[in-house]
Structures are given as structure tokens and as C-alpha cells.
Amino acid sequence: MTRAISLHDVSKAYPRGPRVVERLSLDVSPGEFLVLLGPSGCGKSTVLRMIAGLEEIDEGQLLLDGEYANDLPPSGRDMAMVFQNFALYPNMTSRANIGFPLRIEAPGTDPRPRVDATARMLGIEDLLDRLPGQLSGGERQRVAMGRAIARHPSAFLMDEPLSNLDAKLRTHLRAEISRLTRELGVTTIYVTHDQAEAMSLGDRVAVLRGGVLQQVDSPRAVYALPRNVFVAAFIGTPRINLLRGLVRAPLDGAMTISLGKQFLRLPEPLCLDHQLLRVQQGREVIVGLRSEAVRIAKHSAARPGEVPITGLVEHVEFQGHEILVHFDTGSSPAVVPDLEAPRPRPGRPARRRRRDGSALTRLRERSGAGRAGPVVALDHPEETRSTATADARLPGDLIVRTTPDLALRHGMQVPLLVDLAHLFVFDQHGDRICPHPDRLPDLGE
């Protein structure tokens, strides 16, 4: 048996503190694997605990299979939770740990058949007589998963179950979790701050920032069509290149996006997305280019839709199967100051609220507050520049992914081609304006 889980305008706040979850609405279909993704402290574990019944819901509704469940005790929700710290009883063997909830639910029933079947599924038959202190981290996590699976619950709730393990073991257990949940067909909600886990495991990914849902979609759509600059920057390795740009759209000339010392000339005739950028004439925007949207090639080799720029090699990262080249193009990076923080930093609003504004202005400001504040502030260049300097971790302003056979060295001037088909443009508040939200391209093409 599996179940549908729905959250409608759910909010949560702790005494004398800010709201950690703000009017979150989310529907999880029976058998779906949904990943809650976001930086540490963004409220994703709190959402999981509210679904489990370990935290009270201050506002909104939780529906389980369409029935109101806010007041239902944890024991009545038929869910199994896997914790980050394993939560095994140290004085019990693995067999006893897996069978403990079965003995509680059905005291007169022998749990051994279900324990043995679960152990075979996880490949831990030889660990059943060992204590947790005699197991490695990966073995303990398998036992913790076995305790959840043996109950045959209607939903799995996993709270960063792999974060305490080394990278190689995480990759192995990630594949096991994917296989097991697919075979069992049980609704699963998985919390993580690791976007690689989210992209590889989830049927859908829900991205949270400051307790507010930013986007929920398939992993491919979240990567290819991020709703705002926070989602674009949080998803993808290496992180997307974000550059400050200025739209220039003269009536008698070509439309360009200035990047400081260089510019992107938009080919004519303009596609509809680029035509819609005319309304940004003279405004500063954020240009997003993933590392695969730029290639190293002579300008004469440009394909349709590619425009030339040049870059100065600042640093080369050898990755084995590829290299990441850091270029200085003379552009100014756009900073996402709260990318790794749980919620927006206080006292740094990007929009100035005016009490004498129109009703439409006030409504716009109010709707903006529902996104947990502006993601990027381009209205304060001095502050953004100082933040960028303090937070600078990598040289250059543009990272390009290429093959390892290129011989590049520091200081080389290199011709680059930008594929405008993979160009993102965000407004000053971080919302995507290109590709236009109402005209999403077909990802199947």
C-alpha cells in the first residue's frame, strides 16, 4: 500500500523566531519519489517532520489520501522515517533493531520472517547478529533502512540519510535506495542539500529557500528551465555563470546585451524570447550561462545561434575526463549572497518600499515577499561588489567545460563562442525572463 501526501498553505514558526516554513503547498502522488532540496536551514527537514507528525503544523492542512491529518498522531500515519544519524539502539543487535517496530506493532507475531526477508533484500544477512558499534557507517545505514522497510509502510521519509558517509559509499547507497524504492513502489520524500543526490534520485525535485518553495519539477526541467536565479545557481555542477548585463535595444540597430568590456549580439531576425527583452532596454539584468553553453573555438567556426567573445585564461581545473577553464572576460559577476545561507540576511532589501505607492505597487511588493525576499540585488552595486570580493572562491568570471586534450595555460587569450539557445536572462530581482515563462521550449526536441 502506498499513499498520496498533500500540503496546502502549510506554515511553521518557532517561539520568538521567524517562520521556518512559509505557506508551502505541495502534492506527492502515490509511489512518487520526491526530493526536498535546499541549503542547510531552509526548512526542508521541518517539512518532513510535519508530515511525520513530529512537528505541529501552525497553519495550513496536511492531507493523507485526501483526508485531513493535522491531528493524526505519528503512530497513526503509517510512515517510516530514516534519520541522518541512523538512530539505532546501541545495545540491540541488527536483527533486534530491524524487528523492534514489528514487535511494537504486533506483540504476538514472530518478526523473524520479515526481518530475514528484509536482510536478504539489503544484502545484510551476515550483519544480523552484530551490534551497531561493530558496524561501519554504511552498514549501520543499511540496518536503519531495513528497520523502515520491514514495517511495509505506506510512505518513506528520509532525512539526509547519506550525509554522514564518504563520497564513494554515498554513490553506492544512492543506487540502492533508488532500486529499493522503485521495487517497493512506496511513496518516498527524501530531504537533502546535495543537488547530485536530488537530480539522480527524484522523480521530481522541490527547491526551498528560506522556507518558501521556489520550484517543483522534474530534475531535467529544474536544470534546463530554472524559475529564478537561485534555482539556477543551486542546481548544476559547476555552478552556473552569472554575469551582470545591460540590455541595449536601439530602434535602428542590433540588439545587444553588454557584459562590461564585451557584449552578446543577438542574431536577427530576433526570436520571440529575444524580442521580449526589448522591454528591458537600458535596464541591468543577470545573464546566466552554464559551462556547456560556451565552447572554445575560432570565431570563424561559429554555428547558427552562436556569438563570439574572448577570454583570458585564469585557471585550469583538470577533472580527468574533462577540464574546467576559468576565464576573465572583463564582466562583473552577479552574486547570490544567500545561496548557502538558510534564509535571506536581514537588513539588505533590494527593493525600497514606498508608503505612497499605488495599490498595484503594493501588491507587487507583497507578492515578492512570498518568495522569501529578492534573490539577487542589482540595485546596490557597491554592496554587491564588496560581497563578491569577500565571497570570491574561484578566479575569473566565466567557467567553461571542455575536453582534456586542449593545451591551455594561464594568461592565454582564447576565442569563445556562446550558444544563445542556452542563454538565461533574469531580471533585477532574480526572476527568469528569458526563456519567457509562458513560452517554455520543448525539452524533448
From TrEMBL:
Domain ABC transporter residues, every copy: 5-235
InterPro entries found in the cross-reference section: AAA+_ATPase (IPR003593), ABC_transporter-like_ATP-bd (IPR003439), ABC_transporter-like_CS (IPR017871), ABC_transpr_MalK/UgpC-like (IPR047641), Mo/tungstate-bd_C_term_dom (IPR008995), P-loop_NTPase (IPR027417), Transp-assoc_OB_typ2 (IPR013611)
Keywords linked to the UniProt accession: ATP-binding, Nucleotide-binding, Sugar transport, Transport
Superkingdom of this protein's organism: Bacteria
A Pfam entry, by short name: TOBE_2
Entry's Gene Ontology cellular component terms: ATP-binding cassette (ABC) transporter complex, substrate-binding subunit-containing
Record region (Disordered): 334-390
Gene3D superfamilies with a match to the protein in the record: 2.40.50.100, P-loop containing nucleotide triphosphate hydrolases
Chain intervals with Basic residues compositional bias: 345-355
GO MF annotations, alphabetized: ABC-type transporter activity; ATP binding; ATP hydrolysis activity
PANTHER family in the cross-refs: MALTODEXTRIN IMPORT ATP-BINDING PROTEIN MSMX, OSMOPROTECTIVE COMPOUNDS UPTAKE ATP-BINDING PROTEIN GGTA
Protein name as annotated: Multiple sugar transport system ATP-binding protein
